[in-house]
Amino acid sequence: MRAGKWRGTSGLIMFPRKESIFVLKKLLLTWLTLPLLAACSLNSALPEIVQSDADLIIQNVTAIDAVYGTRPNMDVAITGDQIVSVRPSDGKATATGTNVIDGTDKFLIPGLWDAHVHLAYDPEIGHELFFPLALAHGVTYLRDTGGHLDKLAEARALASSDKVTPDLYVSGPLVDGEKRVYAGQSASAPNLSIGVGTREQAIAEVDRLAAQDVHFIKAYEMLAPDVFRAVVQQAKKHDLPVTAHSPLSMTASQAIDAGISDMQHLRNLEMDCVADPKVFLQQRETVMAADEAEYGRELRSEIHRLQRHKAVQARNAKSCETLIALMKSKGVSQTPTLTISRFLSRKLYADKNWQDTFQMMPPTVAQKWTQVASRLASRKPTASDKAYDDWLMTMVSDLNQAGISILAGTDAPIGFLTPGASLHEELIMLVEAGLTPLEAIRAATIAPAAFFNLQDSQGSVAPKMQADLVLLTKNPLSDIQNIREIDLVVKDGQVVVIPAR
Length: 501
Hints:
The chain is an alpha/beta fold. The protein contains 16 helices and 20 strands.
């Protein structure tokens, strides 16, 4: 549990299943003030148990995590906001006052992370909507990878209060170059960044963010090489990890050598997976030097049009192996965000079932998303789109096989990605890319916790771990789609019940 965040003893918070859309929309208006309900109903038809020091016991459950694997028939005891014991079930009863949940034929996993979200991207999709939707889908941790801190102030305060919310980890604004990508020039490019053009400006910006207690730094694509390195070096002085898009002014290998901890979207890695990455870099440098646009968004798109398909076609296995080996040696993780990276090829937004999740959004957003997604759905993926999709999926598989830590993130709510539900889709796509279901669960639990060096307190079903848990009615290891089959969620020892269908 983060410093300053207190939780009381276990109670119940009610959330509907995703099928109960109208109930959910009504609940979203009042969820922050819901009282904790008495938990005595959980004891119905259950025998008394012998463990008086626990507030909550999930009894006779199959525990699953990436550290200890699968452990059937376990009793998981929780006191306050912490797991206090995990031991084989003896079928005995509990003392009066202990809440008991029958986990027979059910599966208990750690609370999930969405390691790439933007709470400040759309004013209509803020934390008031994001938080309950995340919890209703078992997402108990959110890593916000770009947004001005004044826009996140209420979300940060709420997440640090005694309310039942996901834990929130923030970078503050994207630290970008002078020609920013997200500068507020349009609705699809809101102001999520700060521009720095010199080392001195970069150092000052990192110092400013550190003073406001950010959890990490996000370095972005339009930074000049010396400025990018200054961002990373100054962040290290504050003991802040850095996640990044590989800048267009550098090779991915140069960005990794600078000392970053994590990379996003597999962005620009394809330009290093060629026989001579410096040839591609020189072309980018020429294009950037001649560009006279005020913002970096169009420039970035132009470079991707010039180079992405050529790089994918020219994929060189040895160069890819060298790049991956460098990531491995430097301990750099990767957050592929396949739900958004495959936007033009997989086209999740075109699925009718996925469009049903839009009804969890405010009516104006649901209508806009439905209209735009339906229009885009008619566009057929090009040969380039399909080739890039193949490259993405192959690269994720290669990274995973090489032992690179994969983090599960989505980019929600960008790209019609419904908060919470999109994390389930990300895990499904990771398995499609070659991860096992347990490896996908790892990507959404202990791997992102380790990014913040929190693996000793989060990410597994074990004593001394934060009591953030998801109880499933079906085994996610037999089919990762069972990650959707949520019975209830435990957040900091509090029970979040998902009512029956």
